[in-house]
Design a protein that fits this description.
Layout: H1 2-31
Length: 34
């Protein structure tokens, strides 16, 4: 039971981190002159 909750928590955190990293990366790319 705790293992399943932990899996869900890890998944949620991973999704959040991925979204933030992607957003930061897009901002950096947008600011970089081509």
């Amino acid at each position: 039971m705790i293992g399943a909750d932990l899996d869900r928590l890890v998944e949620a955190v991973t999704d959040e981190v991925t979204r933030r990293l992607a957003a930061e990366y897009q901002v950096k790319v947008a600011r970089t002159p081509r």
